Predict the structure.
Amino acid sequence: MTNRPAPEPVGDSNFVTRLDNWLDERTGIDSILHETLDEPIPGGARWAYVFGSGLLFLFVSQIITGVFLTLYYVPSSDHAHSVVSYIVKVVSSGSFIRSIHAYGSSGIIIVLLLHIGQTILYGSYKGRRELLWLSGCILLALMLGMAFTGYLLPWDEKAYFATAVGTNLVGEVPFIGPILQRLLRGGNQMGTLTISRFFVLHVFLLPGLLIGFIASHVFFFRKAGAAGPINEDPIHPKLPAVPFYPRQVFMDSVFAIVLIGILALIAKTIPMSLGPAANPADTSFLPRPEWYYRPAFQWLKYLSGHWSLIGGIIMPAVLALIFAAAPFLDRRQERRPWRRPISVGAFLLFLVAYTTLGVLSYRGDYSDPGLAAQMHKQDADEKAFMQKPFVAESAAGSVSAALASADPKVLKGQALFQANSCNSCHGESGVGTAAAGPLTGVGTQYTDAQLLALLHAPNSKMTSGGMMPVDPNPDDMEALAAYLKQLHQ
Ligand code: HEC
């Protein structure tokens, strides 16, 4: 802060100046504006610096659209789906606002990747910026949490089953996993308590934390100052500084307009669709997460047995720790990317692995004829639901009706199938993975007695594939068999 303008003499000035003086004496607004807009940027404005403010802009857009959605939303398994259906099919511009919100979350993930990529490429986490980087890491985790918790809220088939898989994974965390899972779900099964917990996380807790950490992120950024281009000294900048206003403000605004323009265009041309209401008894549904979680989903498919602990929990945790510790590990002040092959290379490697796993996941779905048929059926069901006019549901919504009509034994068996990690080898709903074949035919292949015997004493082919004998109490055993027998009837 330099050259603070002397206050205007009071009395002989016009109304605007007097109002400004009045406000400034009470709030210090002039120096705040001066601090905000005249932030020096070594080397001047650049398009490469627009991603951070782009994220802030998208976050504000999520808050505004989110407030509109919350005006209608009811966090209960009996109503959630029908209110979202009401928003999409009846409320004017409801589908548009919901689409901006839903695509906005994808937009945030993309701009986050760009923001992190720019920071790593420019080495702008260096030079006393450890806390800036750490607060950014927390923001990244909070944003991923927002994406995860928001995805469940429409309570359609894909939301329900993707979250079932996600919360199953949480259950795999050593020691505290099962407790965490019950805490998230509000019990062993997913239902109204799960929705209300996710709703509270998505609407109160995580946004509150986000606002706090965004404030600290901006504070740390201002404290350290803009790092400038790659050949700049990150602690004692040498290049002449140019104020943030007007050139950088202009570039940031253009980027914000481009972002909202793209979102509006996509929301208008391909409105976000809603599938049929979640039916927990539907055992044939193939759960698939949103695109940004697809690579992780694919990665987990390769893991089974004790590898799922190492590859699914320990390795990601270690990678996350190394990522968060980057500014502590990489202490040199060198910022040119070609002189920093390890950090830049590691990030590029991550991008390649992330993209490859994502592509493999989509390819896998549509190259296997059995899976592809089911995926196409799910897409078709979703389209058909979107075309149907809105029907008001009675208080006993379709979900509870479906639950009541489903065989409780089968539902219990389904829970046991997840709880015993059968899905880690045999896939969700027993569709099969590379580790073990599908279980969809066992209903016709074996009698009840044969199936029970096989589970008690697996044959050599099963044991050689790593399958352990299943030995719960007789009731559970019967439920598990009942579930297996009706897979893909
Ligand atoms: C470590 C991996 C693994 C786990 C975990 C696992 N299985 Fe298996 N399972 C196999 C392998 C390997 C086979 C052998 C043949 C194949 O590929 O289907 C098999 C075969 C079977 C079969 C016979 C299928 C047939 O067509 O003959 C049944 C039934 C079965 N498993 C049920 C279960 C149940 C129930 C669970 C959970 C309690 C479970 N499995 C957990 C690996 C596993």
Observations:
- The first strand starts at residue 40 and ends at 42.
